[in-house]
Each structure stands twice: as C-alpha cells, then as structure tokens.
Amino acid sequence: MKVWYYSLLLFVTTLMGCFLVNDAQIDPTFGFVEVMLNETSFEYQKPYDTSLEQRYSYANGTHRFWVYADDKPRNLGSNTQPRTEIRIHPDYTSGIWQFEGMAFVPNGTSGATIVQIHGAAHGNTTILLRIYDGDMRYYSTPVIDTGLYDKWFKVNLIHDVDGGK
Ligand SMILES: *[C@@H]1O[C@H](CO)[C@@H](O)[C@H](O)[C@H]1NC(C)=O
Ligand SMILES: *[C@@H]1O[C@H](CO)[C@@H](O)[C@H](O)[C@H]1NC(C)=O
Ligand SMILES: *[C@@H]1O[C@H](CO)[C@@H](O)[C@H](O)[C@H]1NC(C)=O
Ligand SMILES: *[C@@H]1O[C@H](CO)[C@@H](O)[C@H](O)[C@H]1NC(C)=O
Fold first, then answer.
1. How far is the CA of 123 from the centre of ligand 4 (A)?
2. Run of H or E including 38
C-alpha cells in the first residue's frame, strides 16, 4: 500500500458470499450465500519488529488496528509502507463475491485503507478504498463518500471476477 496512516479502527463482520441471484435493489447481500469466517480465515499482518498485541486488539466483536507513519514494513527489507491489517481467506478466482463490513475511522487518521482486493489481471490490486480527511476515495481519486470520521459506516463491495467489474 502506498499510504501512511496513524491509526485505524475496523470492525469486520462475518459475511462474505458467493453469488446466486441478485434482483433486489435494496439489500446488496440479497441472493448471496454467507461464508462463515473464523480465526482460520484471518491472516494478521503488522510491522515486522512489533508483536501483534502492540498493534491490534479484538474485543466485543471489534477488530481494532493501529499503525504509525514511522513503523517498519511488514517484512525486513521491504519498501512497502507500514500496515496493520487482516488478510481474509479464502482466495477466489471466479464468480461474484461480496465483502460486507462495518468500519470506524477516528479523526486524526489519514490514508487508512478500509478494504483492498488483490490479484487483478494486471498489477497487484483490483480495488482499494481509503479514507483521507474523512472522505472515502477509490485509490487517491475519485471521492466516493464524505464525512466518515468518528462514525460507524457500512461497506458492501461486490466483485464480479469473470465480468472484470
Ligand atoms: C473455520 O472455517 C473454515 C472455512 O470455512 C472451516 O473449514 C473450518 O472448519 C472452520 N473451523 C472452525 C473451528 O469452525
Ligand atoms: C465490551 O463490552 C462490555 C459490555 O458492554 C464492556 O463492559 C467492555 O468495556 C467492552 N470492552 C471493550 C474493550 O470495549
Ligand atoms: C477533526 O478534528 C479537528 C480537530 O478537532 C477538527 O478541526 C476537524 O474539523 C475534524 N475533521 C473532521 C473531518 O471531522
Ligand atoms: C506489484 O507492484 C509492484 C510495484 O508496482 C511491482 O514491482 C510488482 O511487480 C507487482 N507484483 C505483481 C505480482 O504484479
């Protein structure tokens, strides 16, 4: 991630689905089948020289992450920016998938990535949603939503792998 950020607070629900049918306009999860996530679904990533407990906690169903601009990268010798994050399994290579989650980003945080999908046909990343100054951006631009600091908000991200959308 080409970002730096001070802290990030993120709650991840246990809903991810594969597509069956979708003709509803209201509930974006309509027609999807829920995939139950548990600890084996989560791979934790954090600065290489800290313990996980120094950058992450889990309580009351909330996963809390924080990282500092001068933190080390994930791996010694890597030139990537610091992050504390959860990579969610399983991987998928076809079909239509949805991520749903609730997130909370405190004012004072900048460049926090809310959700990212890796593995585009070209390059590393299919999508990246970040918060800068309370605004959610698709990469650095365009702005998708505004005024998101200090409140819980919901993210539904639908990835049509075969359609490339
Ligand atoms: C965790 O989820 C995986 C994938 O759905 C499943 O195979 C495994 O049995 C689950 N483990 C537990 C302890 O529920
Ligand atoms: C978890 O919830 C309980 C009951 O509402 C509360 O007493 C406790 O402070 C919460 N813990 C954290 C870390 O938020
Ligand atoms: C964030 O907090 C600062 C300092 O209290 C305030 O001036 C600013 O308006 C806040 N920004 C947002 C987007 O809420
Ligand atoms: C990922 O991105 C980096 C930096 O742009 C590039 O050097 C690397 O080759 C990419 N890796 C893949 C698998 O696309």
1. 6
2. none
